[in-house]
Amino acid sequence: MSGNEEQGGDRQSGPEIGFSAAMQELESILRQIEAEEVDIDELAARLGRAAELLELCRGKIRKAEVEVNQIVQGLEPADGGDGEDGA
Description:
The chain is mainly α.
């Protein structure tokens, strides 16, 4: 199969990849499956890789959410402001 570079292969399974790269690879897998370009013998492996990428992306989103919440909490007044601006 000549399109191995486009499919991701094992080239990115070593060190953890970034969110954008993971999303690009995930979208590529999805396009290949939707276009029926994935051989049935390779389908399970591609779906497994897609599941890994989804988990990686979800983890990065959760981590970013926690970091953003911590930053926002650090900006709130120390007197216990509950988000209501004295109406």
